[in-house]
């Protein structure tokens, strides 16, 4: 992956270092900084480099030998491993095991590029992301390719295992992506098999592979415990998606549960341990206070990381967000501003640089330039419309393709991609659930073409076949139509192995689409991209007309 072009500053650096030059619609010209850095790297000069010395042997960041947070000033094999991982993502560091200024810069740059709180501290979230996004693991290999064995079992190593671990993480299981099929991966495989009604033998054969690639339907961990979909109090004996989400959240707080959607004794013990550590009544009942604590600081860098992001339109955020505030609303604001071209540290603190970035954004979008993030600025940050309209853009079916194409290149896990969930009431990161139908729902909401919203492909097909919500099935596809894929064939859309997108062009039996939750043709992270499809490629398609 090419080195991400992000320049990150903290509020504490003040206004004196800010470059306000604009080029066209770009906010700030950062090319010079990175050209200079690139020249230094190519010449063998690296920011913060130390005199040549043998680096300590690398130590895996998740091992007990490494501190919970790796920070500037430390020297160890943990830092050696960190530098190797950063270099695997294009940092160009001298690997010397010393956490100096150059390593700090690379950490902050990586955090900004992957939507982690930008604090320069390598805590659990940053460690996990470094391994999950590839790092030093072998390159992933499609499980169904001839390069992978028919049954992948514990003890295996290589790209097939990297892909297996990547898919398990996408389904909500907390495994390291290291290309090594160890006990943790085996446990996650068995839990996944149980959740899908498969034989829980820990062997990844044809049925398990097929289920793992069922990533285009929302997994059970997509439920937000605070939503009306979950009981006010989740207690022992219950099962289902809310329990699966609970288990995933507990694992994110240091537990090691199987995500099996069943609230049994081990989950009860983990809940009580978490409650005790959080200063709550350790009664094992997951009520409002426990839920709030579970969601606190998700995505932060740990320690002094930013508050957990909060959707700006939620009741938890003030009508106007202004300078001087510190909260998850500000974390979300800064992440959104960075998506639109700012270069802020995502620290949840609304300081002078955030105020300036807000004003730049408002000027760019033709809004009132007052530095106050009110309804219009919030709408523009999420909708990228100038000026924002109410309801959002509108234009009905004629605008479906325009709105979808404008999102091409949006990367999974970014603030922009995560905002799509607002259309179906989800506030999760798109890195944690399958969101292709959520993207279609968001486009429908933006255009007003249909009032139907559903995060499941099967729902869209069902309503189209019934002729509801201005949806119908057509055999003469046109640009702007919706297309649903049944990878298993049979056009019943009940096996869970489905996908959905929006038709872009049509040429005979071939067509192109704009799809969310799809692979980047360039080989990098999933996101919204244009894909080439066909009606004669071994899978079934249903075209949906919106009128």
Notes on the protein architecture:
With 547 residues, the protein is of the alpha+beta class. 33% of the residues lie in helices and 8% in strands. It is built from 17 helices and six strands. It has helices at residues 31-42, 77-88, 101-113, 124-132, 159-170, 183-195, 206-212, 241-252, 265-277, 288-295, 328-339, 352-364, 375-383, 400-405, 415-419, 436-447, 457-466; strands at residues 471-474, 482-486, 498-507, 510-518, 527-534, 540-546. The protein has a six-stranded antiparallel beta sheet. A hairpin with a 2-residue loop joins strand 3 and strand 4 (510-518). The longest helix has 13 residues, at 101-113. The two termini are 41 Å apart.
Q: Tell me roughly what share of residues is in helical segments.
A: 25-40%
Mean pLDDT figure: 75
Number of strands: 6
Q: Which residues sit in consecutive blocks of at least 5 with pLDDT less than 50?
A: 1-52, 215-222, 297-304, 384-392
Largest sheet: 6 strands, antiparallel
What is the chain-wise order of helices and strands?
HHHHHHHHHHHHHHHHHEEEEEE
Q: How do the helices and strands line up, and which of them pair or pack?
A:
Elements: H1 31-42, H2 77-88, H3 101-113, H4 124-132, H5 159-170, H6 183-195, H7 206-212, H8 241-252, H9 265-277, H10 288-295, H11 328-339, H12 352-364, H13 375-383, H14 400-405, H15 415-419, H16 436-447, H17 457-466, E1 471-474, E2 482-486, E3 498-507, E4 510-518, E5 527-534, E6 540-546
Antiparallel strand pairs: 1-6, 2-3, 2-6, 3-4, 4-5
């Amino acid at each position: 992956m090419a080195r991400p072009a992000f320049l990150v500053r903290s509020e504490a650096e003040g206004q004196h270092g800010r470059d306000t030059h604009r080029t066209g619609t770009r906010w700030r010209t950062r090319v010079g900084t990175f050209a200079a850095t690139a020249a230094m790297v190519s010449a063998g000069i690296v920011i913060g480099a130390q005199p040549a010395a043998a680096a300590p042997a690398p130590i895996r960041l998740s091992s007990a030998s490494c501190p919970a947070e790796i920070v500037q000033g430390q020297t160890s094999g943990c830092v050696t491993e960190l530098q190797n991982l950063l270099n695997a993502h294009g940092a160009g560091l001298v690997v010397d095991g010393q956490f100096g200024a150059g390593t700090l810069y690379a950490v902050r740059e990586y955090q900004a590029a992957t939507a982690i709180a930008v604090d320069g501290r390598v805590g659990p979230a940053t460690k996990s992301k470094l391994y999950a996004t590839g790092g030093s693991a072998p390159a992933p290999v499609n499980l169904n390719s001839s390069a992978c064995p028919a049954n992948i079992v514990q003890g295996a190593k290589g790209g097939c295992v990297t892909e297996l671990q990547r898919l398990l993480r996408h389904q909500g299981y907390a495994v390291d992506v290291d290309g090594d099929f160890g006990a943790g991966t085996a446990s996650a495989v068995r839990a996944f098999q149980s959740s899908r009604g498969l034989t829980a033998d820990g062997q990844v054969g044809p049925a398990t592979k097929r289920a793992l690639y069922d990533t285009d339907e929302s997994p059970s961990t997509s439920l937000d415990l605070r939503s009306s979909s979950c009981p006010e109090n989740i207690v022992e004996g219950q099962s289902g998606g809310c329990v699966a989400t609970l288990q995933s959240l507990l694992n994110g707080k240091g537990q090691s549960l199987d995500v099996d959607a069943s609230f049994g004794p081990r989950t009860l013990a983990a809940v009580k341990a978490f409650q005790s550590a959080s200063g709550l009544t350790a009664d094992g009942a997951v009520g409002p206070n426990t839920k709030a604590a579970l969601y606190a600081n998700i995505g932060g860098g740990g320690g002094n990381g930013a508050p957990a992001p909060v959707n700006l339109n939620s009741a938890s955020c003030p009508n106007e967000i202004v300078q001087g505030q510190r909260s998850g609303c500000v974390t979300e604001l800064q992440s959104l501003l960075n998506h639109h071209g700012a270069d802020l540290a995502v620290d949840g603190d609304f300081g002078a640089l955030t105020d300036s970035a807000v004003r730049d954004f408002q000027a760019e979008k033709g809004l009132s330039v007052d530095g106050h993030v009110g309804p219009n600025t919030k709408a523009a940050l999420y909708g990228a419309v100038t000026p924002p309209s109410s309801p959002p853009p509108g234009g009905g079916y004629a605008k479906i393709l325009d709105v979808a194409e404008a999102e091409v290149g949006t990367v999974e896990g970014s603030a922009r991609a995560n905002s799509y969930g607002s259309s179906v009431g989800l506030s999760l990161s798109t890195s944690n659930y399958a969101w292709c139908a959520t993207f279609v729902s968001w486009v429908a909401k933006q255009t007003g073409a249909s009032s139907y919203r559903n995060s499941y492909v099967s729902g869209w097909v069902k309503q189209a076949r019934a002729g509801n919500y201005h949806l119908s099935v057509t055999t003469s596809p046109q640009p702007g139509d919706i297309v649903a894929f049944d990878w298993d064939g049979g056009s019943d859309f009940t096996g869970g192995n489905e996908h959905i997108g929006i038709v872009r062009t049509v040429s005979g039996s071939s067509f192109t689409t704009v799809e969310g939750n799809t692979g980047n043709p360039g080989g990098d992270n999933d996101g919204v991209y244009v894909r080439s499809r066909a009606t004669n490629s071994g899978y079934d398609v249903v075209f949906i007309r919106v009128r």
